Structure formats: C-alpha cells, structure tokens
Amino acid sequence: MRALVAKQYGPPHLLALEDLPIPDPGPGRLQVRVRAAALNPADLLMMDGTVRDLVPLDFPYIPGTDFSGTVTALGKDVETFEVGEEVFGFGAPPSFAAGVGIPAITSGAMAEYAVFAAGDFLARRPDGLSAETAAALPSTGMTGLAVIEEGQFQPGEKVLVIGAGGGIGSVVVPLLADRVDVIATASYEDEQYVRDLGAGEVIDYLEADTVDECLRRVPGGVDVIINLALKGDPLIEAARAIKPGGRLLSTTPGTPAPSAFGRDDLAVSVVMGTLKLTKNTLPAIATHALRGTLPDPVTRRYRLSEAALAYQDFAHTHSRGKVVVTMSDEPAP
Hints:
By secondary structure, this protein is α/β, with parallel strands linked by helices.
C-alpha cells in the first residue's frame, strides 16, 4: 500500500510516500480501506517534535487521525462492524491514546489502508454524507460539540469566537448562531466565510486590536470567549474582553492555568473533545451535517500523491475550514 511516512521529527517537507505492508487488524481492531483523511494542527505538533514529551512517536510514522473508509477485515472479538460497511471516525497514535487514556488507536490514516480500534470513536457513515465530508468531521465535531455542551450557553449571550475560520470554528459558529450573538475574529479574506457560518459580527484581527474593538462594540465585555487559536500571554490579554463573572472556553494546547488570568471571577475551562465523546457523538455530528446545520467544512482537497504538499501548504499558508486528502486519484464518493 502507499502511505505518507515521517522517518524522524521535523518539518513536513521531510514527509514522503512509501510502499508499506498493509497492516493486519489485531484483537478488537478493524482494517479499513481509507477513502479520505483530514489534516489537523495536532499532526504538525506531533511530527515536528513540539509535543514529543507528551506524545513520543515511533518511526517510521504515518500521520493522520480523522478518516472515512470501507471496512475490509475484522480482528478477533470485533462484533460491532462488518466487512464492507462504510465508516468514519478518529484514531490516535498509540502513545497519545495511552497518555490521554482514550481507547482510540490507529496505524495512521494518511495511507491506503489503516487499522483502527473498534469502539465509540468509529461510526457508520450514513448514506448522503460524502467520504470527504465525513473525514473532515471527527476531531472538529467532537471538540465543537464538547464546547457547546461545556458552555451552557443562554439565549442572547454575546460570545466572542477567536479563530472562527478554522476547522473547529466551522462547527462551533453554526451550532451557536441560532441561540447567541456571535462575534468572530477572522482576517478580511475570511470575513464572508465566517458570516456564512452564522457570525453576526466580525473583527479583523489583522487590522484592529481584538480586545479594544470587542469592548468598543460590547461595552462591559462579552459573556463568553471561545478560544480556538491563542495560547499563553495573548490569551491572557484577550480575556480582558470578558465581563465580570464571564467564562472562557479554550481548545488549544498551551492554555494557561486559571490562576494565570488573575481573576477570581473568571471561569476557565479547557475543552478536549476526545474526553467528552460518547457512542452518540459521531452519529450526532453526521446528523447535523446531513441536515445542513453544519455546512461542508472542506475547503481544500489533495490526492494521496500530493499529501506531502498538503502538509507543507497546511503548515505555511493560511487555511480556512478543513483540508482533506483522498486516497485515490478520483474524488472520494
């Protein structure tokens, strides 16, 4: 099989396609003929060694966690899926799964075949949901739904979404838009995109100071900030835009501890969708997508022969929504 491979820690230009044996499913796992796989920022952090203390990799390493495909073989004791079924879901490198404590393991989705642990992190792909769209939904959908659940948003609240143009924003903004007033940060080129997602107002963070502009529009501060982009000191600064007694929900690695904000009135939550997942999460995401509640998040497409280029572009150029790689030279059905 063809697979995208990293042989050492480093930037994405070191990635290369190689021919590898098709992985066999062990007990409790299933083999999948991958149709499409999505890129995530965490892929870059793992491959360049930024998080090697938390997620050490074994080389050669195949990246990719989010996928859709066809079940081609079952390991011992797998009874929830059948050969020939169309599935989609999430699988993490063994070191990540062990460190976080989640039963989701993969051999790497950026390949023609991959092995995944059977369980709640996989679901059947319903008719009408394309393979590309399904591959783009798991990580962002799990995190987006977890943010909505954690936030306990009330009608009429004013919510600032920082980093609304990314993959998680493509889930969070439309799910929030019918219940709260969404103010999104985005560049000028992404303004219409986030408005189409449901943002009522947009702050161009490249042209204006986000905090000052937010406080100008909402004197006294917003009820909630959903942070999908900032970390460290910039996030502490952004919290000035939250009113007394407000809430901060953050999905980024490097979110400071609550004490770092110096505010006893501020409720700070770090949201990890993988820790909030239930057996209903992925089917619910698919239902939102089929109903049109979630618009198709795929904005850039590559073939497997271009997968290394996809990661280079992802690392070095601005990207909105989700980037997907299809495993054949034809678009994934």
